[in-house]
């Protein structure tokens, strides 16, 4: 037999049903824990008015079914969530037992002759109990049918048995009518609740998808596609948001140094080995240089074969050491194995002066880089 593939709608319906099922089981257990209060009320109402053996019989029967129902719900809620709905009979059983126990009031506690003053109170209690219980099933209407089956089973059985007693028959039929109306309303509320839950799940899934897309878009907007380094946009925004004159880092007088790096004779590499090899070298350069830097340093592709490193908290002497380390790492070994093109890098270093704009700082580092090129390349130069 071929099984239908799960559609998104079916999956969301299943998740909504699963959530509603769990909530219904939890709420029903919570309600059952308050049931002994209702027993006290019934006991107080019936005291001296209903024969003790009947009251005791009803209370004893209810207490046993109440404990079994609580046990079933506790077992159900302990199951891991994927298995819970497969053991739905535990919830249905608990609901049916609850319904039967309440309905047993009619044969056991309702006076034989309907004119008794106790009767309206007991009917109010029974209807009130059913009305209080009903909203619990709005999150999982199917269990309400089990509750009703329990109630109806006892009430109808009693109606058939007592069909000659008109007073009892009319009480039973009235109760059944009340429960039918209640069920009709609960079904409507249940459908709305399920729809709301499904909508909520859909919105959550959509929000997560959008947040993921936004994260990817933001990362792409700030990343250089070839090397995976920060791009010029991120470099500029970091400089203007954190290092502008009067900004937080500036006021704290944290030193900032920058390195401007440019691969030497890169045009020759492209011309001799082709653009693809040039691209591989740029990637390998980015990777090897990154290994020489710390986490807080921002390594960005400034454009073409020119790169920038921001070194926060670093003064010029330390920046010179780092630049020299990078230069040696690049010159020490070809960046790619095939073809093993020897490549070097020239680096200009500048430390920010007090009240110097970030544009002026980059310009000074660029001048130092130009001086390194002029000085013969494969070297580090400090800006004035
Ligand atoms: N393969 C590749 N080449 C690039 C990329 N961006 C820029 N280039 C090349 O880098 C080369 C830069 O050449 P030039 O500015 O003349 O500098 P150079 O040859 O490195 O010489 P000097 O900087 O003076 O040492 C050009 O040929 C550009 O086409 C890129 O993304 N991939």
From TrEMBL:
SMART domains: GGDEF. InterPro entries: Diguanylate_Cyclase (IPR050469), GGDEF_dom (IPR000160), Nucleotide_cyclase (IPR029787), Rev_trsase/Diguanyl_cyclase (IPR043128). Its EC number is 2.7.7.65. GO terms for cellular component: plasma membrane. Gene3D superfamilies: 3.30.70.270. NCBIfam families: GGDEF. This is diguanylate cyclase. It comes from Hylemonella gracilis ATCC 19624.
């Amino acid at each position: 037999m071929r099984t239908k593939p799960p559609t998104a709608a079916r999956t969301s319906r299943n998740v909504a049903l699963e959530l509603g099922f769990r909530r219904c089981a939890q709420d029903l257990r919570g309600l059952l824990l308050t049931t002994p209060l209702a027993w006290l009320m019934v006991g107080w109402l019936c005291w001296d008015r209903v024969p003790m053996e009947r009251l005791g019989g009803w209370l004893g029967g209810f207490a046993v079914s109440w404990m079994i129902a609580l046990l079933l719900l506790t077992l159900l809620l302990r199951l891991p969530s994927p298995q819970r709905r497969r053991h739905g009979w535990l919830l249905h059983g608990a609901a049916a037992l609850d319904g039967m126990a309440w309905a047993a009031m009619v044969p056991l506690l309702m006076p034989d002759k309907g004119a008794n003053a106790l009767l309206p109170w007991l009917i109010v209690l029974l209807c009130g109990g059913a009305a209080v219980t009903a909203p619990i099933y709005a999150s999982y209407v199917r269990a309400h049918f089990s509750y009703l089956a329990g109630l109806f089973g006892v009430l109808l059985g009693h109606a058939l048995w007592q069909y000659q007693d008109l007073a009892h028959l009319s009480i039973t039929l009235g109760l059944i009518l009340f429960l039918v109306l209640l069920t009709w309303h609960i079904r409507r509320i249940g459908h709305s609740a399920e729809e709301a839950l499904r909508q909520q799940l859909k919105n959550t899934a959509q929000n997560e998808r959008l947040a993921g897309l936004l994260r990817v878009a933001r990362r792409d907007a700030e990343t250089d596609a070839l090397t995976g380094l920060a791009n010029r946009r991120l470099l500029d925004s970091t400089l203007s948001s954190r290092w502008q004159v009067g900004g937080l880092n500036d006021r704290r007088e944290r030193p900032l140094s920058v390195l401007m790096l440019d691969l030497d004779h890169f045009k020759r590499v492209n011309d001799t080995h082709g653009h693809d090899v040039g691209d591989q070298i740029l990637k390998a350069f980015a990777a090897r240089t990154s290994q020489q830097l710390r986490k807080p340093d921002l390594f960005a592709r400034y454009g073409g074969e020119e790169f920038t490193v921001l070194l926060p908290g670093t003064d010029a002497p330390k920046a010179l050491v780092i630049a020299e380390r990078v230069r040696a790492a690049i010159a020490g070994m070809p960046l790619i194995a095939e073809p093993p093109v020897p490549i070097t890098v020239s680096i200009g270093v500048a430390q920010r002066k007090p009240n110097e704009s970030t544009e002026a700082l980059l310009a000074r580092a660029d001048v130092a880089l130009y001086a390194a090129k002029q000085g013969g390349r494969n070297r580090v130069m400090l800006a004035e």
